Amino acid sequence: MSETKTEVVIGAAVLAVAAGFLIYAGQVTGMSASTKGYPLTASFRSLEGVNVGTDVRLAGVKVGTVTAVSLNPETFRADTTISVLDGLELPDDSAIVIASEGLLGGNFVELVPGGSPFNLAAGDEIIDTQGSVSLVSLLMKFVSGGEEQ
Q1: What local confidence, expressed as pLDDT, does residue 138 receive?
Q2: Per the domain annotation, does 146 fall within a domain?
Q3: Which of 36, 39, 69 is nearest to 52 (CA)?
Q4: Considering its fold, how many domains does the chain have in total?
Q5: 3 state DSSP class of 42
Q6: Is 26 in the same domain as 45?
Q7: Residue 1 structural domain
Q8: Is residue 147 part of a domain?
Q9: Residue 69: predicted pLDDT
Q10: What pTM was computed for the model?
Q11: Cα–Cα distances in Å, from 60 out to 16, 94, 99, 125?
């Protein structure tokens, strides 16, 4: 009978650890209770390495996510919608940049605040954009000695 009690206790402990792991994983990946935010749009020449769900950061701190990406058939640019935390007031002359976490790291979207006294409102477009730089094209320029081909 004591073996059965021991098995039940160990089984309950395993289930508790599994439940804790699932809760932790949900919080780390952002699948837990969603935080409210307001949408902003931007149009990029190149959005390489950025998809829906990519982090939006300000000073290295995650302040939002990419919520939609589509190709504009008239301008051939990548129209992007991001969601930024409520309460974060960005100047209307802020810039948005596709940045890299390092040589082998992934890309993320970085917000660079401007100095305007006026702020962006929900649904506004960030005009100052800088798309991603292709690592392959940089290496090709380096190998060819910087000559344009």
Answers
A1: 72
A2: no
A3: 69
A4: 2
A5: strand
A6: no
A7: 1-33
A8: no
A9: 92
A10: 0.66
A11: 34, 16, 11, 22
